[in-house]
Amino acid sequence: MDDSLATAPDQLVQRHAQPGRSLITILHAIQDELGYVPAAAVEPLARALNLSRAEVHGVISYYHHFRTTPAAPVTVQLCRAEACRSMGTEALAQHIEAHTGCRFDAGHHDGATVELESVYCLGQCALSPALMLNGTLHARVSPQKFDALLAAARKRVEVPA
Questions:
Q1: 102 annotated to a ligand binding site
Q2: What is the pLDDT of residues 8-30, one digit of tens each?
Q3: Is-above-0.85 flag for pTM?
Q4: Would you say 121 is a known binding-site residue?
Q5: E strand or H helix that includes residue 75
Q6: Nearest to 85, CA basis, from 55, 50, 132, 118
């Protein structure tokens, strides 16, 4: 992620707003590059695609995948859909909250090292409970497996336990 690009929204949009690309495709490209879609990109996107700022903002805010601020160094996305729920994801969620000191879907504040998000289906129904940790999918996650995954993730991003 290069935060300096957030200060140059026109160049960022120009790089990704190629003819024939949809708004969602462009938003994904921006988020893939920066890790989030900066608010400053809304106006240049609207201009480039001949949309209103409200239309662009509406798409960004409607889809839970899009971020408008940088993510925490460690992001846990836990599947809370029915198959995972039937296999113990709610007990796992309680363990994760207790172990991290964070709450699901509360966002993160400056300085927070872990962010917890609920998602509704990671496509691992037969291998539930499932979660994504910094974009990597993990299945059949037990509390012990989560603890090991979290410790490894914190080590990779040099976040204290």
A1: no
A2: 888 888 888 888 889 999 999 99
A3: no
A4: yes
A5: strand 74-79
A6: 118
